[in-house]
């Protein structure tokens, strides 16, 4: 009955300490992705409609990296991940429902 | 360990400052109660004035523009100052921590801050009555482009709604963390009272929908200040987009108003039928389902705006889906009444009034949610009738039911039950006399938001106005009776006045500062397990 | 405190609860995300309705400055994350240094933003200015949204920086330490959110090519 993501243990706080090495590699990955998205946009001029999709895809990967490592989502209780997913699903539904409206005008 | 002569939370500290700077959730709840009731009465007076204007065709009392301002003010006050905060901020604040067996909400200071923000927002909204170019005349929806162009003081009203949104978000945030972190040992999610479940679902809506209206209202302010706008067709903008953003919040907001009321009814029925609630989990999950699906139906407010056909069909279907969890609740409540040992007391009367009126409101909502019939009924009095049946006949009745139910617990006093019953009957008759004719005049085609109407609508309007007088009489009698209960010799209330089973009935009336004088015992077989406990 | 005598309940609202404050912060971040979410919806609709105008207008923005600001924010995100590591290990001094660096980065961001904005305003592209008013349908919307969204984002940078400065002082006074660093953690969470918003704003405004 009892949901294990909900237990009131006090040890949950600060069990994981991220090392500086992990921080450096996270930053390196983020900078690499930034270089990638800028070069696609500036030099890959012929992609046209694909650029929006790739730019959003890369941005999303970056955001996931930030959330997972810098914001410690990876090491938190699972409920945080579920709540974040809930909010994202909700926001995507807003986008989809609004697009249904405007694409069919 | 616990002293038997413990001071209650009224006695611990005295003086004005001990109240307005109190971080005790019970005091914050009562601060909310007193301020909300004050604004409610202002809203009632505006409503009665509107009905007076509509007594006869033609101009009786006020100019068209004044009427527009009055109905806008009535809407803003009743929605943003009364009904959205009402049950969560008053009874949620007061009873959620007690029902969970803890001594306060998770962030007591934020809780006090939310009341202060509420007061500031409320004063901003009311200031438009006195200062500037007069209160807004846009309707509470502030539709662009009129809200951008009108000369009235829309900016202040909109900023007030923005500020009030913060108070809501803080309350919602506080409740979610409280429910996750502060349940007393043994109180699992499925041993929580249904009121806590309802507040949990409500809080998620407050948290996730309110920011959208916040940013939308800021856009309106920016348009008025900068003079050019996002919703201005002259630079390629789309006024309908404003309506989308507005209803992305404001439809879920309807459930901010309704869900806590469902929670109240789920508390009242077990206590006064002395049996366990029928379908505990179904009611709990239907709250979450309503909260979730409620996000995806906003388009049904916009069927006639020229929205695309595909979207209208999607939104209409989604709207019908919300009816399912709502109906689940009503069936479960009725099933709870079946073969219960019903004890007819004033709070139960309000609960029964709620069920009756909410059914009318809900079913008329389906008429409006259906694409075909909405095209005819859009912006008629049918909408006004439907909305008041759901919000006033529903949430309003639940609010007063809760007030009668928890009165002995909050103040340790009692009102006159006979007068309370009489007041309920007058209130109930007045309510239905006031709003039922609106459904009919709406079907006849009477448009809303005009200070005047064609002679053929005279009869229903006359009946409505008479109803408003009956309603006001009932309200005055009810509130007078509640206030009279504060005076005179103090009766012996005891801990459990109604024979309820949730944790608040295990403590003193009024509760001590830390809520309990002895460790609360959690009912073994679930929160409404009367069989094993009595 | 108003809190005294009698029974002490196990889960009290007056206890210090790091988990609660973290959960509260996450919930607050959701509201911030949806605040910008409303603007992203507006952006999506108008870009869908005016794809060409958005393309033309975005050529006016300076990709180099935008990219520089992205790098500044990413680096500052790392430093604030490292300051949490430092305080967890009990190294308050290092934590403060890293936080100061983060605040400095926020100032760099704002200065770059200031030059960008002034260039646009100099060209009369701010809503209501003469050039803005003569822009074709759609391009005006682009600049309106550009100023609204980056302006709101800059406001969040300022709030975040103030939050971090408060944390610096509290760490200095020893109020925050290896046993109690919720505020550092929450400042970090807030700062990462601001960073995330920028990660989306950057391609949406600067990289339409």
Overall description:
The complex is a heterotrimer of chains A (105), B (534) and C (209). With 105 residues, chain A is an all-alpha fold. Chain A folds into two domains: 18-71; 77-105. Chain A has helices at residues 20-43, 49-70, 78-103. The longest helix of chain A is centred in the C-terminal third of the chain and has 26 residues, at 78-103. Chain B has a single domain, classed as Cytochrome C Oxidase, Chain A, CATH 1.20.210.10. Chain B is 66% helix and 0% strand. Chain B is built from 17 helices and no strands. The two termini of chain B are 27 Å apart. The mean pLDDT of chain B is 93. With 209 residues, chain C is mainly alpha-helical. Helices cover 77% and strands 0% of the residues of chain C. Chain C has helices spanning 18-49, 51-58, 63-88, 92-122, 130-134, 139-172, 182-206. In chain C, helix 1 crosses helix 2 (51-58) and helix 4 packs antiparallel against helix 6. The longest helix of chain C is centred in the C-terminal third of the chain and has 34 residues, at 139-172. The radius of gyration of chain C is 21 Å and the shape is elongated. The mean pLDDT of chain C is 92. Chains B and C meet through helix 7, helix 8 and helix 9 of B and helix 1 and helix 6 of C.
Task: Provide tags for this entry.
heterotrimer, A: 105 residues, mainly alpha, 3 helices, C: mainly alpha, Four Helix Bundle (Hemerythrin (Met), subunit A), 7 helices, 0% strand
What's the structural blueprint in terms of helices and strands?
The complex is a heterotrimer of chains A (105), B (534) and C (209).
Chain A: H1 20-43, H2 49-70, H3 78-103
Helix pairs in contact in A: 1-2
Chain B: H1 16-20, H2 25-53, H3 64-83, H4 86-99, H5 108-130, H6 146-149, H7 154-181, H8 194-226, H9 239-273, H10 280-293, H11 309-337, H12 346-369, H13 371-377, H14 381-411, H15 417-444, H16 458-484, H17 530-533
Helix pairs in contact in B: 2-3, 2-4, 2-5, 2-16, 3-5, 4-7, 4-8, 4-14, 5-7, 7-8, 8-9, 8-10, 9-10, 9-11, 9-12, 9-14, 10-11, 11-12, 12-14, 12-15, 14-15, 15-16
Chain C: H1 18-49, H2 51-58, H3 63-88, H4 92-122, H5 130-134, H6 139-172, H7 182-206
Helix pairs in contact in C: 1-2, 1-6, 1-7, 2-6, 3-4, 3-7, 4-6, 6-7
């Amino acid at each position: 009955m009892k949901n294990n993501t909900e237990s009131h243990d006090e040890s949950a706080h600060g069990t994981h300490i991220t090392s500086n090495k992990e921080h450096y590699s996270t930053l390196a990955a983020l900078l690499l992705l930034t270089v990638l998205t800028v070069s696609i946009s500036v030099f890959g001029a012929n992609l046209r409609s694909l650029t929006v999709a790739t730019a959003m895809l890369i941005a999303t990967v970056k955001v996931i990296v930030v959330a997972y490592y810098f914001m410690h989502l990876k090491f938190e209780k699972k409920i945080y991940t579920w709540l974040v997913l809930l909010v994202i699903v909700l926001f995507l539904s807003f986008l989809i429902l609004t697009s249904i409206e405007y694409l069919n005008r | 360990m616990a002293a038997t002569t413990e001071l209650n939370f009224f006695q611990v500290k005295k003086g004005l400052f001990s109240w307005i700077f109190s971080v005790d959730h019970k005091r914050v709840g009562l601060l909310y109660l007193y301020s909300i009731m004050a604004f409610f009465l202002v809203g009632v007076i505006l409503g009665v004035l509107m009905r007076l204007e509509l007594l006869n065709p033609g101009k009786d009392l006020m100019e068209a523009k004044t009427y527009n301002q009055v109905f806008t003010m009535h809407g803003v006050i009743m929605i943003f100052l009364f009904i959205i905060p009402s049950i969560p901020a008053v009874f949620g604040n007061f009873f959620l921590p007690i029902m969970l067996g803890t001594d306060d909400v998770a962030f007591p200071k934020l809780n006090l801050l939310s009341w202060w923000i509420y007061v500031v927002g409320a004063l901003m909204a009311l200031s438009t009555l006195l200062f500037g170019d007069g209160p807004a005349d846009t309707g509470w929806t502030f539709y662009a482009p009129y809200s951008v162009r009108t000369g009235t003081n829309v900016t202040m009203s909109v900023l007030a709604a923005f500020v009030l949104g913060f108070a809501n978000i803080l309350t919602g945030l506080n409740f979610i963390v409280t429910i996750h972190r502060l349940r007393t040992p043994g109180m699992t999610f499925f041993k929580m009272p249904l009121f806590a479940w309802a507040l949990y679902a409500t809080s998620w809506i407050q948290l996730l929908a309110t920011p959208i209206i916040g940013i939308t209202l800021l856009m309106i302010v920016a348009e008025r200040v900068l003079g050019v706008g996002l919703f201005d067709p002259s630079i390629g903008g789309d006024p309908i987009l404003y309506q989308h953003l507005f209803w992305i919040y404001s439809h879920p907001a309807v459930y901010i108003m309704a869900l806590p009321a469902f929670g109240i009814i789920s508390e009242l029925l077990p206590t006064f039928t002395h049996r366990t609630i029928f379908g505990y989990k179904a009611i709990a999950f239907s709250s979450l389902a309503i909260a979730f699906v409620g996000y995806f139906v906003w388009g049904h407010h916009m069927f006639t705006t020229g929205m695309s056909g595909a979207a209208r069909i999607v939104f209409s279907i989604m709207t019908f889906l919300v009816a399912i969890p709502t109906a689940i609740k009503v069936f479960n409540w009725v099933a709870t009444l079946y073969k219960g040992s019903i004890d007819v007391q004033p709070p139960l009367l309000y609960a029964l009034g709620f069920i009756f009126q909410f059914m009318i409101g809900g079913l008329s909502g389906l008429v409006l949610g259906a694409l075909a019939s909405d095209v005819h009924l859009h912006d008629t009095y049918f909408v006004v009738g439907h909305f008041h049946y759901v919000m006033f006949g529903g949430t309003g009745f639940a609010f007063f039911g809760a007030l009668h139910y928890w009165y002995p617990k909050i103040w340790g006093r009692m009102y006159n039950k006979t007068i309370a019953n009489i007041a309920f009957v007058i209130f109930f008759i007045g309510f239905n006399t006031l709003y039922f004719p609106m459904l009919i005049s709406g079907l006849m085609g009477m448009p809303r938001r005009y200070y005047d109407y064609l002679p053929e609508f005279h009869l229903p309007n006359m009946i409505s106005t008479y109803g408003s007088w009956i309603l006001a009489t009932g309200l005055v009698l009810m509130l007078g009776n509640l206030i009279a209960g504060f005076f005179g010799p103090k009766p012996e209330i005891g801990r459990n006045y109604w024979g309820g089973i949730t944790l608040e009935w295990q403590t003193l009336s009024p509760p001590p500062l830390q809520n309990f004088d002895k460790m609360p015992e959690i009912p073994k077989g679930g929160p409404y397990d009367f069989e094993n406990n009595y | 405190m108003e809190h005294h005598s009698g029974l002490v309940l196990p889960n009290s609202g007056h206890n210090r609860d790091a988990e609660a404050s973290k959960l509260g912060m996450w919930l607050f971040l959701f509201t911030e995300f949806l605040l910008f979410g409303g603007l992203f919806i507006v952006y999506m609709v108008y870009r869908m309705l005016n794809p060409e105008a958005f393309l033309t207008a975005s050529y006016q923005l300076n990709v180099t400055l935008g990219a520089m600001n992205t790098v500044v924010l990413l680096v500052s995100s790392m430093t604030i994350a490292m300051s949490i590591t430092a305080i967890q290990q009990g190294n308050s001094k290092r934590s403060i240094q890293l936080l100061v660096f983060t605040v400095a980065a926020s100032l760099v961001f704002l200065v770059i933003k200031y030059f960008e904005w002034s260039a646009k305003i100099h060209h009369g592209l701010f809503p209501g200015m003469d050039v803005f008013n003569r822009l074709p349908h759609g391009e005006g919307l682009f600049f309106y949204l550009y100023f609204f969204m980056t302006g709101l984002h800059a406001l969040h940078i300022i709030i975040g920086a103030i939050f971090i400065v408060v944390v610096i002082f509290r760490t200095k006074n020893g109020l925050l330490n290896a046993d109690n660093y919720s505020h550092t953690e929450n400042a970090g969470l807030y700062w990462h959110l601001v960073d995330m918003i920028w990660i989306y704003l950057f391609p949406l405004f600067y990289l339409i090519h």
